[in-house]
Amino acid sequence: MATTETLEEFYQQKFNWLPDNLSQNIGHFNVFRIVQYSRREFYKISLSAGRTIVHYADKSIEVDGNTLLFFSPNVPYTIEMFGEARKGFFCIFTEAFLTENLRSNVHDLPMFALGGHPAYMISDEQRGNAGEIFGKMLAEINSDYRFKYDLLRNYVTELIHYALKIQPTEVLYKHPDANSRITAVFTELLERQFPIETPSQRFNLRSAKDFAEQLSVHVNHLNRAIRQTTGKTTTHHITERLVTEAKALLRHTNWNVSEISYSLGFDEPAHFNNFFKKQTNTTPTSFRIV
After folding, report:
1. How many CB atoms lie within 10 A of CB 40?
2. Under DSSP, is residue 134 helix (H, G, I), strand (E, B) or coil?
3. What residues contact residue 59 under an 8 Å CB cut-off, 6+ apart?
4. φ, ψ dihedrals at 84, nearest 5°
5. Count of beta carbons in the 10 Å neighbourhood of residue 7
6. CA-based nearest residue to 109, from 66, 76, 71, 137
7. What pLDDT is recorded for position 207?
8. Three-class SS string for 49-95?
9. Could you give the CA distance from residue 7 to residue 104 in angstroms, rounded to a whole number?
10. d(Cα 143, Cα 152) in Å, to the nearest integer?
11. Which band of pLDDT confidence, cut at 50, 70 and 90, is reported for residue 34?
C-alpha cells in the first residue's frame, strides 16, 4: 500500500532542509520554478518499472516495463514517470569516480555516447538481478568498510556490462513541439559554458555544427528549429552570448586581452580583436578603458 508523503518528508527529500514556518498553524504554501532541462554534472543509472518517457534534444524514448536507464551530463534531459515507474533505484556518480575502473573512456560507452542508447528493457528475472546489485550498493554505502568505494565502483561497472549484453530500446518518436524542445536544450548547453571563471577555462561549443554534433541532430535541423522558435539564427545566439561574456571579462577581470581571447575560444588575439570590433564598433582595449 502506498504511503502518504508528509510535508517534512517532501522538503527533506527534495531540498534537505525544512522551512521555518512549516510548523505554524496557518496552513502551508510555497511556490517553485520548474526547470525543464536542469543542469547536471554527474552520470546517472536508474532501474524502474512501468511507463517512462525520456526527452532529450528533439527526440523522446518511451518505455513500458522493467527498464535500465543511463544518463550522461553532456546532454540535458528530462524524465516523465508514470505509476510504478517511480519505484526502483538510481545511483549517481562523476566521471572521475568511474574512470579508474574502465579500460575505455566513459564517453565511448554506447549508453553514454552522444546519440547513444540510454534505455534497456529487461525481463523480471533481469530486473531482479539488477535490483540485487543496487541492493548491494545500498548496503555498502552505509557500511564502515575501508574500501567500500572500490566495491561500489565495481557494482557500477557490473551494471554497465549487464546492460551492454542486452539489446537497447529504440522506441523513438519526435515530440510534437520538437522545435521548442531542441531550442531549450541548445540554450542550456550554451549557458552551461558560462561564466568563464579562470583564464584556463575555454569556450568550446562555438558553432552551430558543434551544438548539432553534441545533440546528435543535423545542423540544418538545429538551425531551422531555433530560427522558427526565436526568430534568430543559431550563430546569432552564440555570437550575442559571446559578446556579453567578453564585455564582462574586460570590465570585471584584470586578465590581459590574450588571456580573454584564449578563454573565449579564439586561437589568436587578433581574431578576437576583429570579432569584438565587428560586433561593438570598438576594440577590446578601448572598451576596457571607457
Report:
1. 16
2. helix
3. 172, 173, 174, 175, 178
4. -70, -15
5. 13
6. 71
7. 94
8. CCEEEEEECCEEEEEECCEEEEECCCCCCEEEEEHHHHCEEEEEECH
9. 44
10. 11
11. very low
**What's the gap between Cα 175 and its chain centre?**
19
Are 54 and 119 a contacting pair, CB within 8 Å? yes
How many angstroms separate the Cα of 200 from the Cα of each of 236, 259, 271?
25, 8, 18
- Using one digit for the tens of pLDDT, what is the confidence trace for 40-64? 678 889 998 888 887 766 677 777 8
Give the residue carrying C-alpha cell 557490473. 158
- Contact by Cβ (8 Å): 279, 243: yes
Burial class (CB in 10 A: 0-12, 13-18, 19+), 211: buried
What are the grid coordinates assigned to 217, written together?
541532430
Q: 130-149: per-residue pLDDT in tens? A: 999 999 999 998 899 999 98
> The C-alpha cell of 196 is what?
568563464
